[in-house]
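Attaching the record inline, Q. Sequence:
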Amino acid sequence: MAEQALVPPSWQALYAPWAPASRRSYGWSTPFILILTYAISAIPLVILMAVAAAGAPGGLEAVAEQGEAAVSGDVMLPGILMQFALWAALIIVWAKAFERRSFASMGFTANRWLARYLRGLAIGVGLVVLLGGVMAALTAIAPGAVPEEMRDMTGPDDADWAVLAGGAFIGFALFAIITFLIQGGAEEVIFRGWLMSTLTARWGAVAAIIGSSVIFGAFHLHVMVSGVAYGLMAVFGIAATGLFFALYAYAERGVWGAAAAHGTFNAAAVLMPLAMMQVSEPERTPGDLFAEVLERATGMAGVEATEVGPHLLVQPGVFLTLSLIVFLRMRARKA
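Structure, as predicted:
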C-alpha cells in the first residue's frame, strides 16, 4: 500500500508529474480563483494610490477625473510590482496548499532554466523589434492606416536626447525593467504555469492552451473603456499574444522562457514611448510621464485618445503567425 501511494496521479501532466497526494482544481472554478486572488492582490495598489492621490494636487477628485494619469509613476511602479508579485504568490499558495503539487508541475522545471530564461529575454527583444518593423512597414505602405502619433518615432527637431543619459531617467528605467520582468513573469506563472497545467489535468493540453489564452484575453477587458470596437480588437490581440506564450511554454515544457520574453515585451512597450515623451518634454520627470504612457500602452486612454484602424491588426497578425510557426515546428519534431 505504501508503494502504491507513491504513484503519481493518472491525469495528464503538462510540465512535470504531479505529487502522488496532489488534487486537481475543477476546470470551471479556475476563472473564479483568478478573479478572487486578483481582487485580493489589488488591495495594496488601491490603498497606495488612494494615499498618494489624497496628498497630491487635486486629491481624490483628480484621480476620479483623470484616472491613473493623476498618480505619479513613482507610486504606480511599486504598486504594480506589489500587486503582481502578490497575485502570483497567492496562486502558488493555492497550488501548494490545496492542490498539493510541486513547483515543477507549474513549469518551474530545473532543466537548463537559466539558459531558457536568458533565451527568453532575447526573444522578448526580438518580439518588440518584429512588431516595430511590421508597424513601420505598414506606415510606409499605407500611412493613413496608422495613427499620426505612431508614424514618426524619431522625435521632434528640438528633442533633448541627453536627458535619457541623466540619472533620473536611467534610475526610473532600471526600476521599470525590474518591475515589468516580475510583472510579466508573474502573469506567466499564473496563466501558463498554474492555469494551463490545471486545465491540462482536467481537459487535456489542446483545451488548456486555447482556454488559458481566452481567459488571459478576458482579464484585459478593461480596454473596453476606450470603445467597444477598439476594445474587441485589442482583446483579440492580447489573446493572440497569450496563445503564442502558451505554445512557447508548451514547447519548452516550462515557463522560464515565456516569463522572460513576456517581461521584456511589456517593459519595452512602456519604456520606448516613455523615452520618446521624455526627449520631447525634458522638463517633466519620468514618473510624471509614466502614467500617461501606461494608459496608452494598456489601452486605457479613453475613446478620445484611441483610434480604431488596421494598425490594431498588427499585434494579432504577428503573434498568430508566430504561433503557427511554433505549432508547425512542434508537429515536425513529433513526426
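The chain has a mean pLDDT of 88. The CA atoms of residues 217 and 329 lie 25 Å apart.

More tomorrow.
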